[in-house]
Write a structure and sequence with these properties.
The complex is a heterodimer of chains A (197) and B (298).
Chain A lengths: L5 H19 L6 H8 L3 H7 L3 H24 L5 H18 L1 H11 L3 H4 L10 H16 L8 H20 L11 H12 L3
Helix pairs in contact in A: 1-2, 1-6, 2-3, 4-5, 4-8, 5-6, 5-10, 9-10
Chain B lengths: L7 E7 L5 H7 L4 H7 E5 L9 H7 L3 E7 L2 E2 L3 E2 L2 E2 H10 L1 E7 L1 H5 L1 H4 L6 E2 L19 E4 L6 H12 L13 H4 L10 H5 L15 H4 L21 H4 L21 E2 L2 E2 L8 H12 L4 H4 L8
Parallel strand pairs in B: 1-2, 1-3, 3-7, 7-9
Antiparallel strand pairs in B: 4-8, 5-6, 10-11
The chains are: A mainly alpha (197), B alpha/beta (298).
């Protein structure tokens, strides 16, 4: 069997680190604890990531790329804006269910520890792949007349804040029903809030 | 050294016009030298061989016919409808220069009667003007007005029998392959997405907040400067896209956006690439670019 490439090894480290970060938080997770979980020496881990902060930055880029690729597929689908909203909500909740560590990391590490990212992830740089696709989604929605023209961040906050909030309270075990059972109502709420009048 | 060619015989004919290109031409600092190499058979302002009445009576041959202003078949000069006058002079000349945006695409005057007014070869983007079949001898110098040096460049090229590479609207590539954005002093503000909120300031990019058409407009306004010193964007006003067949656009000083995203991307730039770069640039705050270049209070 061929030895994994350095890139493949990095992804494998990130996958494990993601689980630790999202469960333990940024400060509780250490390079030794990550190395231990992977089964490699701490010294070797530093061959792949020069610091915990750099690993954290690569993780948010990795997650933003996953979300960006998913939304890009939806953006490029020949469906209405309303159907795209349904598809984005479904995709987001599916990832939250199948790979909860990704959304958890986004909410509990990236957004909650901005000081960690301030020197390498200014503004939206590290989440650009995801935000760019949301920009394209909104721009095309307004251009085709389905969505109301307004400031991007007003709409972005309504959409992503809503989804992030639902995943967060689901993670707190507050929701009486499974997350996916709210998909349709949430998509409808978002559509009615944003649609042109 | 090339031998000194004979003087070119030039007719400057006006359609429906504000005289803007005529006046622009008079601002050419090398006008004196140029006049040594051309003989105006007719010009609306400069000394010339024929008055308008004589021109219409004689309908002489020429080397260059410069047409300024928009075309309307029924519009008359000295009692002759443009439909006959332009066509006759066009058939009797070797080269035709479509001078300014009205002659080139219909321009401002077309707005008054869109059905009947057009350029001489193009009607906006369509090549349905009266001289469409003679397009090979037409050089388009669009602009409102065209820069005087664009005309003297073209006349010199014709005079020395040099080939002129042209674009799809027959504009010389030497003059129109650039975008007005090229050479704009505000490019650093464009790169870092620092917007100008007012006209007339030295700082900020005019694209996002003031409707600047520089990234969509072919022209060398920031390479061959106006009055040899400035341009619209250099003086703090947005480019209005006057060299393009789409001119005049509505709401010239507003950038159309959809959900805060510009509706038009700079020519040839994919939306996804532009937004990714713009989003990244906006994430930084560059103090030097956010400050006044010259602080009046120190």
């Amino acid at each position: 069997m061929a030895r994994p490439t350095k890139e493949e090894r990095k992804v494998s480290i990130m996958t494990k680190a993601l689980e630790l970060f999202s469960k333990e938080g940024f400060y509780q997770t250490t390079m030794p604890s990550i190395a231990e979980k992977i089964g490699m020496s701490v010294g070797n881990l530093y061959n792949y990531f020069t610091s915990k902060e750099m690993l954290a930055k690569d993780l948010i880029l990795y997650i933003a790329n996953i979300l960006g690729d998913e939304i890009r597929k939806i953006n490029e689908s020949p469906i209405s804006t309303q159907e795209k909203i349904e598809a984005i909500v479904h995709m987001y909740f599916r990832i939250a269910k199948d790979r909860p560590e990704t959304i958890e990391y986004f909410l509990r590490v990236y957004l909650s520890n901005r000081e960690v990212f301030q020197n390498c992830c200014e503004g939206m740089i590290c989440v650009s792949a995801f935000v760019t696709e949301m920009m394209i989604f909104f721009e095309e929605g307004v251009r085709c007349g389905e969505l109301r023209d307004q400031d991007f961040f007003s709409a972005f906050g309504l959409f992503m804040g809503y989804l992030g909030g639902m995943v967060f309270i689901n993670g707190e075990n507050i929701l009486p029903k499974p997350l996916e059972s709210y998909e349709h109502t949430i998509a409808e709420n978002i559509y009615y809030a944003l649609k042109s009048r | 050294m090339p031998s000194n060619p004979a003087k070119l015989r030039v007719i400057w004919l006006q359609g429906i016009t504000c005289n803007g290109n005529t006046h622009s031409f008079l601002n050419d600092p090398s006008l004196g030298t140029l006049l040594d190499s051309v003989e105006f058979l007719h010009h609306p302002l400069l000394p010339c061989t024929f008055t308008l009445q004589q021109l219409v009576k004689k309908l002489p041959k020429s080397d260059i016919l410069i047409f300024e202003g928009a075309y309307s078949a029924s519009f008359e000069r000295a009692g002759m409808a443009m439909e006959s006058l332009l066509m006759t002079l066009a058939l009797k000349t070797k080269h035709i220069i479509s001078m300014g945006s009205c002659a080139s695409f219909g321009g401002i005057f077309k707005e008054n009667d869109p059905e009947h007014i057009s350029g001489i070869v193009f009607d906006k983007e369509n090549d349905s003007g009266p001289l469409r079949d003679m397009r090979k001898k037409v050089i388009t110098l669009s602009g409102c007005p065209a820069h005087p040096k664009w005309l003297s460049f073209t006349i010199d090229m014709i005079r020395f029998d040099k080939p002129i590479a042209v674009d799809e609207y027959r504009r010389p590539k030497e003059l129109y392959a650039y975008l007005v954005h090229n050479g704009c002093l505000r490019n650093e503000y464009f790169e870092w997405k620092v917007d100008s909120e007012h006209f007339g300031t030295k700082e900020g990019c005019l694209f996002y907040a003031q409707g600047c058409q520089g990234p969509f407009t072919h022209g060398s306004c920031n390479k061959i400067l106006w009055n040899e010193v400035s341009s619209k964007t250099r003086s703090g006003t947005p480019c209005v896209g006057c060299t393009e067949p789409t001119f005049p656009k509505r709401e010239l000083f507003t950038t159309k956006t959809y959900m805060s995203i510009p509706s038009e991307m700079p020519i040839g730039i994919p939306k996804r690439s532009y937004l990714a770069l713009a989003g990244a640039a906006k994430s930084f705050h560059i103090k030097r670019l956010e400050e006044r270049l010259i602080d009046d209070h120190t």
